[in-house]
Amino acid sequence: MNFSINHVFLRIEGSQADEFLQGQITVDTNKVVEEEFIPSCVCTNKGRVITTFWIKRNERGFEIALLDELRIDFQDHMGKYIPFFDAEIKMTENKNNMNSFSSSEWMKFLIELNIVEINKNISTKFTPHELNYHLNGIVDFSKGCFNGQEVIARMEYRGKLKFALKTSNNLPDVSSTSLITNKDGKKIGEILSKAGRSGFIYFKNQEDSDKPFYLAGEEVKIS
Asked: CA 84 to CA 78: how far, in whole Å?
């Protein structure tokens, strides 16, 4: 699997690497295989997503690809828990090469998968449900406990969710603001991540996503 030019790679190794990760990440480590990377995330104890990443097994443990801008946040979070296990986190060689995606190409790839990749601007601000992670397998509710699981599970079973997540390849090409407004200029949502004209749009109230909305005064078309 090719990643973007902004990704770096880590290894998590040791006799208790499985046990350590099972208590932290949102996918079941028993379902992580060597053949392919799958998406996952780690959350705060309040159920907010710190970072997304891609994970697969290797001969010594696990390999992880994540955005370089969140590498320190990931390592700082994991560093609170890993001393209690026979496991360690190691940097590995940068595997990005001439086949790596540009930022815009990577964003279009993510939109096809309906996966919001957490960046520095939105880290710890959203729950997995607000990012649709409960719909695309990034959270496994059958795996048992993980950090933040109690809060996330309550949201899963408490009833209808009111927010909405949309994607677009036709966003206005502006970088000065991420605020989505209605026709009266009232904030009703925000751009979670964007590259060029492609990105993800979050609405606090689902009904607002079905009406005309605007970025920097220009109407946004959902593609």
From this structure: 11
